[in-house]
């Protein structure tokens, strides 16, 4: 299907708009392909020396709000000689038309062909975007396999959380960056700029080598994987002398020095989030053992209350958004979250601006926070994530919150006017039994009972939302076996019956869950090695697209593809998913350094099995997870003691021209 | 912009669109009404909005709304339809058949489900434009051009309904997707022409610079 690698790169990057436009009336939501958003940047092609195409490999409506891409887009475009444009996954209807009419994968900014760029950066927050990556590569006319690419093809760089184990896509990407991207993209840009200025000596191979030598850009082709006769990995070693044995993650320190996004993109089409999101800190050391994000983003680095205030002010002025999201892995844990919320609430009193926090920790939510979040009468959704139904399983996963805490917290929300809260749990956790899951029903019943008693009203609800547990690389559960989908589905069915066993309470409880099957495939992709690449390719060839969307995801397609290619390697789907790993097994990502000490991870896994909890290093002494010494980083937290000052009121009927908007 | 919001738990900005063009259709004449919290100079508002919107979405004019709703002033719409690879003579015959018919029933999916309605009565004029007026950016292939003035009715009769009508009466099947442009909409004059719906609020002088 792919275009042979001998086709020359398009000379100058002309717009494909004339070819694209006639196709748009024939597809759903054509607005997602036109670009021109407030905040979008179009630069002169010829004036740029290094050109990036950035992709979020999902539909525009999911990809546009993505913070990672928005940040990198802005950081890159601030450089005078660098140009960055965005591209998203096209829906199958447009894909078919593009193939028929020969229209290549394009950027939404200036509608240029992706293949014309120097670097094609793809952001993976989830592994379910892998098939969409293959579609984009193929539509772009770039050879599918990295090994077949020439100097006329862009360097494909993967980033985002899933890039901490890029092995399943190692055949398709040229490089991967682990960790924070702000400085990484600047460093890559500098290397590409210099190499081009020198006349591109040594071609693509030399460029990749220069990237690899930084020790923080992983170039899979420079590493060989050897396997044992039983299918396990024997070792992963460099196949040339001048690349490092291990590649290290990047950590952006001092978030106050990187106040992005400054000019958030304002979509014309409807998207999953329409708000100005500010990360209030990165990293999390709560230590939930299933949480890859918490493990790989250590240590905690707070953005100060004053920088957050400044960003909110400028971000809202630029964008006109009416909602501010204070984003992080556990926002209520910021050392000055109270002052931040009350300060912002005061500053925006009497306006339509509302505040929201993503999923809030039960123990950190209190009446003050509740009141600040609801100050202007608008209450954005509240989600609490106890994750496990029983006290026992919560010890296993290190989610230290008691049932009493949860009930008290939810009741606080109800008495402060919330009518509806969402409770998030996981099913299929290590050591989990039916009883652990059934306790979720008791918890939900008690929440409703206590809520009715406290408010004297029957008009309160809660939604129990359950996701399947997927063991992730670089976590203490990286060795764990997954539960079979049938077992998970059985437990969810029992839970549903238990919730509805009391009709009166059951009526006030919504139940949302994901089947076990998609999780199993996520498990294959998250802990897979290079052999899994053949499965991804097979699935894609048989039509697999948009695997994060239940209406597009086909479990059978993945099972069939796995059954077709994996036995050739002496392994199968179960081997990757429901098999428990041993301590000494070489894991596919062992040569990729997240800073976490493997011995510490193993010890934490053993502690988990003996239901022993681990504290947070922000409030107790360092417990030697390994990150800070190996990455030369440190915890950066407040309190700063500073407060947000009242804003000088914007003159009542003021009209403002958005600064820097394109005309 | 000091936009006004509706009351209630989930306040919405007060914006209403009068007979917006269907998705995928180009337009030179869309109108919307915005509720504001404070008085502003219309020209400054026009500039601020124009700066915030995408290139190609140009805000041409703004006036302070007088009495009566905007929707009431949208009586008819003027459309141009370019039909690449259609022989103008064939189109001529189809249009003649359409004009001759008393009623042309067409079907379309609406929010209320599949509906059948007359596409003929609302059409005030339908003309094949001489090919001397070359279409926008089209290649050197034969191209027939149609201009329509259609009355605003319920359910609305859109350009694609008229094209469906041409298929019904004369089996006209455009080989490639037609390009549709709305040229104007507004109040209908006695002579069947369309007048700018903002004229009534303008006291004779245009505020916006065109
Ligand atoms: C907002 C959010 C969402 C939103 C918006 C998603 C979007 N469009 O961006 C919604 C609600 C849609 C969502 C959905 C999901 N989410 Co979510 N989400 C988040 C949240 C709260 C913030 C993400 C964020 O903006 N981070 C900040 C940005 C700046 O970080 P970043 O994207 O990682 O980017 C940095 C680096 O990774 C790097 N980088 C990124 N891309 C690239 C590319 C290149 C080339 C380079 C060099 C570097 C680079 O540079 C960036 C700057 O440093 C996080 C939790 C968190 N605080 O991270 C969870 C989180 C990312 N989501 C998660 C999950 C599981 C999901 C879902 C799969 C849930 C589901 N089962 O449906 C879906 C997947 C959606 C999809 N198809 O992509 C998990 C990821 C799991 C993991 N890795 O362990 C997280 C970590 C939450 C958690 N603790 O479980 N999510
Ligand atoms: S090294 Fe110590 S201080 Fe740093 S994140 Fe790990 S436990 Fe916390």
From TrEMBL, chain A:
Q: One of this protein's Pfam families, by short name? A: Radical_SAM_N2
Recorded hits in PROSITE patterns, A to Z, give: RADICAL_SAM (PS51918)
According to the UniProt entry, its GO molecular function terms are:
catalytic activity; iron-sulfur cluster binding
Ranges for the Radical SAM core domain? 270-512
Q: What CDD domains does the record point to?
A: Radical_SAM
The record's listing under NCBIfam families reads:
rSAM_fuse_unch
Q: Could you identify this protein by its name?
A: TIGR03960 family B12-binding radical SAM protein
């Amino acid at each position: 299907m792919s275009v042979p690698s001998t086709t020359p790169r398009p000379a100058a990057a002309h717009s494909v708009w004339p070819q694209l436009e006639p196709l748009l009336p024939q597809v759903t939501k054509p607005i997602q392909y036109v670009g021109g958003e407030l905040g979008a940047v179009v630069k002169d092609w010829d004036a740029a020396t290094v050109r990036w195409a950035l992709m979020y490999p999902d539909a525009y409506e999911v990809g546009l709000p993505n913070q990672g891409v928005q940040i990198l887009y802005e950081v890159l475009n601030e450089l005078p000689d660098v140009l960055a444009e965005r591209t998203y996954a096209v829906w199958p209807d447009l894909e078919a038309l593009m193939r028929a009419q020969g229209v290549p994968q394009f950027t939404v900014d200036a509608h240029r062909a992706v293949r014309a760029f120097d670097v094609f950066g793809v952001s993976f927050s989830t592994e379910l975007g892998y098939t969409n990556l293959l579609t984009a590569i193929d539509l772009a006319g770039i050879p599918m396999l990295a090994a077949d690419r020439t100097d006329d093809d862009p360097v494909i760089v993967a980033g985002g959380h899933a890039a901490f184990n890029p092995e399943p896509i190692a055949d398709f990407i040229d490089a991967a960056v682990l960790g924070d991207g702000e400085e990484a993209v600047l460093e890559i840009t500098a290397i590409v700029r210099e190499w081009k200025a020198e006349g591109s000596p040594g071609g693509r191979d030399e460029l990749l080598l220069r990237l690899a030598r930084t020790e923080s850009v992983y170039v899979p082709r420079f590493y060989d994987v050897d396997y044992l006769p039983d299918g396990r990995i024997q070792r992963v070693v460099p196949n040339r002398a001048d690349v490092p044995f291990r590649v290290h993650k990047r950590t952006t320190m001092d978030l106050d020095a990187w106040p992005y996004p400054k000019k958030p993109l304002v979509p014309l089409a409807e998207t999953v989030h329409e708000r100005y999101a500010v990360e209030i800190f990165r990293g999390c050391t709560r230590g939930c053992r299933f949480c890859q994000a918490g493990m790989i983003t250590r240590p905690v680095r707070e953005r100060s209350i004053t920088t957050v205030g400044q960003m909110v002010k400028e971000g809202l002025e630029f964008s006109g958004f009416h909602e501010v999201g204070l984003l992080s892995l556990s926002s209520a844990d910021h050392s000055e979250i109270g002052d931040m919320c009350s300060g912002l609430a005061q500053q925006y009193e009497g306006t339509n601006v509302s505040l929201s926090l993503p999923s809030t920790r039960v123990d950190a939510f209190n009446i003050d926070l509740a009141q600040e979040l609801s100050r202007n009468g608008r209450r954005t959704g509240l989600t609490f994530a106890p994750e496990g139904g029983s006290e026992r399983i919560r010890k296993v996963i290190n989610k230290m919150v008691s049932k009493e805490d949860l009930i008290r917290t939810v009741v606080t929300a109800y008495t402060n006017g919330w009518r509806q809260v969402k409770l998030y749990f996981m099913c299929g956790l290590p050591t989990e039994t039916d009883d652990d899951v059934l306790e979720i029903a008791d918890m939900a019943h008690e929440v409703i009972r206590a809520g009715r008693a406290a408010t004297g009203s029957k008009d309160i609800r809660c939604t129990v939302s359950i996701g399947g547990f997927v063991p992730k690389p670089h976590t203490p559960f990286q060795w764990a076996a997954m539960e079979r989908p049938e077992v998970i589905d059985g437990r969810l069915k029992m839970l549903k019956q238990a919730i509805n066993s009391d009709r009166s309470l059951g009526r006030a409880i919504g139940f949302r869950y994901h089947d076990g099957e998609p999780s199993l495939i996520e498990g294959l992709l998250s802990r897979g090695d290079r052999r899994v690449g053949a499965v991804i390719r097979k699935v894609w060839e048989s039509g697999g697209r948009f695997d994060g969307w239940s209406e597009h995801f086909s479990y059978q397609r993945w099972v069939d593809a796995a059954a077709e290619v994996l036995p050739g390697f002496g392994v199968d789907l179960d081997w990757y998913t429901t098999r428990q790993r041993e301590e000494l097994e070489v894991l596919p990502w062992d040569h990729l350094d997240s800073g976490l000490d493997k011995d510490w991870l193993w010890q934490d896994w053993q502690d988990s099995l003996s239901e022993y909890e681990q504290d947070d290093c922000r409030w107790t002494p360092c417990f030697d997870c390994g990150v800070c010494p190996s990455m030369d980083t440190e915890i950066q937290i407040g309190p700063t003691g500073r407060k947000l000052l009242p804003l000088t009121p914007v003159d009542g009927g003021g009209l403002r021209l958005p600064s820097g908007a394109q005309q | 912009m000091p936009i006004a919001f509706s009351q209630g738990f989930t306040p919405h900005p007060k914006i209403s669109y009068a007979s917006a063009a269907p998705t995928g259709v180009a337009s030179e004449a869309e109108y919307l009404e915005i509720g504001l919290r404070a008085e502003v100079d219309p020209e400054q508002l026009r500039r601020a909005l124009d700066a915030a919107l995408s290139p190609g979405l140009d805000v041409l004019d703004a006036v302070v709304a007088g009495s009566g709703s905007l929707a009431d002033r949208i009586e008819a719409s003027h459309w141009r339809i370019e039909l690449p690879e259609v022989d103008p003579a064939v189109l001529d015959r189809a249009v003649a058949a359409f004009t001759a018919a008393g009623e042309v029933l067409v079907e379309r999916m609406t929010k209320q489900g599949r509906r059948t309605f007359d596409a003929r009565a609302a059409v005030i004029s339908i003309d094949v434009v001489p090919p001397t007026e070359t279409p926008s950016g089209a290649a050197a292939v034969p191209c027939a051009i149609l201009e329509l003035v259609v009355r605003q009715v319920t359910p609305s009769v859109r350009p694609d309904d008229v094209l469906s009508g041409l298929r019904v009466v004369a089996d006209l099947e455009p080989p490639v997707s037609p390009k549709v442009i709305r040229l104007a909409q507004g109040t209908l004059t006695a002579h069947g022409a369309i007048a700018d719906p903002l004229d009534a609020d303008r006291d004779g002088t245009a505020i916006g610079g065109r």
